[in-house]
Amino acid sequence: MYKISIIIPVFNTDNVLERTIKSIINQSMDFKDIELILVNDGSTDKSGEIMDNFSLKYENIKAIHLNKNCGSPGKPRNIGIKSSNAEYVMFLDSDDEYDKYACEFLYNTIIDDDADVVGGMMSLKNKNGEYYVPISSWVPIIDKTTDNYPTRKKRVEKKLLSNELYKLKFNSVKDNPKLITDFGFTTKIFRKSYLIKNSIFFPENLNGGEDAVFLFNSLINAKGIIFINKIIYYYDTQRDDKNNHSLTHNTSLKTIESRPKSYKLMYEIAKSHNQKEMFIRELLYSKLMYWFNNHLFNASNLTNDEILNILKNNKILFEECINYNAGLTEFFTNLFKDIKNLNFDAALRKINDKRTKFSKYLVSIIIPIKNNKIYIFDILDYFFNLNLNFEDIEIIFVDDGLQQDTINIIENIAIKYDNIKFIITRDNLNFENLMNLAILNSTTKYLIFLDENKFILENIDILYEKIKGSDLDIVSLKSTKFHKNNIEKSDSIFTNPLELDAYIFNKEFILKNNIQFESNQDSLNSFISKCFNSYKKHETIFSNSKISHFNDVEYNSENDEKSFNINNILDNIISIDFNEIEEFNFPRDTVFELHVNYKNIIYSFIINFSSKNKNLICFGPGAHARNSKNSKGEIIKPPYYDRWSWYKYFDESFIAYADPIFLYDQKITLGWFVGDKNQWYLESLSLIIKKLSKSQKILHENILFFGSSGGGFASLGLGTLIKGSKVLLNNSQFFIMNYHEYHIENLMRILESSFNESSSEIIKRINYRLNIIELFKKEKYIPEITYYLNLESKHDFQYQYSPFVEELSKLDLYNNQFNVKFYRELKDNPHEPLETKETLNIIKLFCKQNLFNELLNDEVIDVHNMENSHNKKLIIEKSKFECNKEYIIILENKLTDYHKQLLNNQSDVVSLKEELSSSQSDVVSLKEELSSSQSDVVSLKEELSSSQSDVV
Fold it and tell me: Where does the UniProt annotation place the signal sequence (predicted)?
């Protein structure tokens, strides 16, 4: 018979599950006295395998597998309770840990005091990785005086810190009603028999709050409740920000409506125990205010109808708070009275005012959508790359006669992203009514309307920054273009609003003037015209950036003397010769495309020279498929740039450069800037970048080259050729000939044709172009390198990193210029770089720490801690794996030590050789001394013999 059964529901936590299980195996209580029940709630990662491995190793670990996810941990926990064989039960989440003495403290106390429930303290892990014990919830329980809160808190802290054996005993919650405000059920142990007797189980139909119902039911039924001053449980607060299945901050409809459902269940339990007033006064009113402030007001993806249904379904809760004059603030008193009196329009107005103030979004974009599935994903893809972060935009799709399959697609997208809403046809509302409903359901102060065939590529931030905080009703934007540094701009005043390219509206202005969509063939244009007829303050601004009709995007192309087409991505294009660079007056703070002719080879760039600081970041390209297509199904033509749209994320000057080899060969997929017999493209590129940086007075020390894979190889080469610059890499190549055969075969085909020699001869001739170590030797220089390596990419580790470190350690040039950062990320292709937002954060922090830091804007945006990065892949299928951060830190430290040892191996060998050589010299000296000593002995013998003769 076991003493305790510990129940853990498991869902996709393979990165931390082993750590959690070991926190139980390593308890101070003998593990043989503990039954561990793991309930696999339909995991799709390796969690099930980990459970089975432990179950096979330990007979007291039980692994239960459910066929599909239940949507809530309630059912797995109930299965655990019914499957348990101990007299007492405890609960643990699969991504948290118990203190080493947790089981021993709780079990001994519940046995000694014969209680139904015993609980201890929880320790929280903050953003800095430090643990702290929050005692705020225990202040009203321990200190019942009427003193002010700070005074009471100090007394409680002193009491707990000075007495580790401090214990509180209660016969029931009636002794101290404040007990029901403690919701840490994982810090407690429960007598199983009283749970079964009173049918105390977890609700199985809730998406949050099921644990609160269970604990409330447990406490209100318990005879004997004890609190001990011991840390029981370690909780990682960061998990709520990592999309790791915690529902704490989820704003989906199911989760939002689940919490009042849980309060309603607790209300019924309290009524059945004649404790309704205690529940309302001690708990309900505060929980409802918390729910509004921390959930509903932040749930910008909910529609008014959905909110109205929640209010109506839970009307009794708001009514009871008014009836019992609970401790509501003035705002909530008025709101709850509106709900009680069925004045739902007034209640919705109050709620939507708060939602606007609480909204984490800057602007709402309302988009009518027809049956164009590709358009849906393409427009989202563009939003992910806007100069405003995707997370700052509220997107509202409006049904414009959609078929069911398209509706399903949008609904699935809206479920995955909190900032996406979908207004769908219902109650015989026509399209215009739906657009008006979208305005009412928006939660921001500013609105942008997009025609189904038109959207802004780059200028939302320009519009927003102009109207933000102003008293303007409308801001309009007109685009301009320039070529060869000549900017053309029309200064005419536009009388026809439809001539403008984009608009942003103050929502309050639209509502105050009752401007609505009306049924006609051109409802959007009619709406905009009405806005212009009603405004008091309006401003038109100009932009040098491109605004485009999505369905009409055309790629311009120009022919040069070599008779091939250059695909232009931007409208702003500059084409010059190499010798013109230094004298050319390049625009600043405006993105443009540059084509430079150097020795009859065209080098292409996308550039944004900044006036904000003196740094330059350069991005290099990797492999590109020649048959990839755009959204219109057209083949994308070279030049190919990687990460060119990232310029909008940086205050630094920005260059994305392309490999010319794609222009001159139709089959190549990765060229590494190797060039041909006449020209080494990487060297020529370095000369152009030197001139460009010189034209902007940017020092080499303030240049950073970033790239992954083949782009990392180019970055390394440029960092070596442009001495003083820094290099930041992710899963880079160091040795071209160690890379995948199909890329190498294409490259050697071109080289053999150009050099008219065999592959082996070419490799010998241009080894410095193919091998970074050989380039270091040639240039007699090693740049400062920071290298991020995914340890799941076995090919990168085995064929690139390991031989590079080995060869690097042999160079006399090496002086700790190579700094490696290991991480572990499981994905279909582990060679792929880190996600966009994590990469951006790494680059921003690197610039702040390693480049010239006289920034006009000294803020470094921490994109790493934002929610998941967004791209089309994540819309279609979410990654199944997460990186185990703590394990990575340990692993990184270990492998960094290994890395340093490997690099220092050369010096160790040299030292050993010197010691050996010295020892050999010592041996020779000893031999000589021995020989001399032997000669002395002979001489002594002769002298002795002579002396004996003399004596005779």
Answer: none
What is the amino acid identity at position 401? G
What is the spatial distance between Cα 411 and Cα 421, in angstroms, rounded to a whole number?
8
pLDDT of residue 398: 87
Q: Is the pLDDT of residue 859 over 50?
A: no
What is the model's pLDDT at position 906? 59
DSSP bridge pairs for 790: 823
- CA gap 192, 184 in Å, rounded: 18
Q: Which residues, including other chains, have CB under 8 Å from residue 875's CB and lie 6 or more apart?
A: 377, 380, 413, 416
From 80-89, 115-124, 348-357, the region with the lowest mean pLDDT? 348-357
CA end-to-end distance (rounded Å), the chain: 103
The angle formed by the CA atoms of residues 43, 49 and 54, to the nearest 5 degrees, is 120
Retrieve residue 724's tokens: 């003083």
- Is residue 755's pLDDT more than 70? yes
- On the question of pLDDT at 871 being above 60, the answer is no
DSSP readout, 504-571? Answer: EEEHHHHHHTT----SSTTHHHHHHHHHHHH-SSEEEEEESS--EEGGG---EEEE-TT--EEEE-SS
Looking at CATH, the fold of the domain delimited by 4-244 is given as Spore Coat Polysaccharide Biosynthesis Protein SpsA; Chain A (3.90.550)
C-alpha distances out from residue 392 to 230, 320, 397, 444, 864, Å:
42, 38, 16, 10, 15
The b-or-e profile of 108-126 (16+ CB within 10 A means b, else e) is: ebbeeeebbbbbbbbbebe
* Integer Cα distance of 480 and 502 in angstroms: 13
**Residue-wise pLDDT tens digits, 694-746:** 999 999 999 999 999 999 999 999 999 999 999 999 999 999 999 988 788 88
What CA–CA distance (Å, rounded) separates 726 from 722? Answer: 9
Under 8 Å CB-to-CB from 919, ≥6 apart: which residues? none
Residue with tokens 């899963």: 731
pTM attached to this predicted model: 0.47
User: What mean pLDDT comes out for the span 475-483?
Assistant: 58
Q: Mean pLDDT throughout 279-294?
A: 87
CATH of 359-550, one of 3.90.550.10, 2.40.160.50, 3.40.640.10, 3.40.50.720: 3.90.550.10
Residue 314: phi and psi, rounded to 5, are -120, 25
| DSSP, residue by residue, 312-358 | HHTHHHHHHHHHTT-S--HHHHHHHHHHHTT-HHHHHHHHHHHHHHH
Q: Give CATH for domain 569-883.
A: 3.40.50.1820
Pairing of strands 601-608, 616-619: unpaired
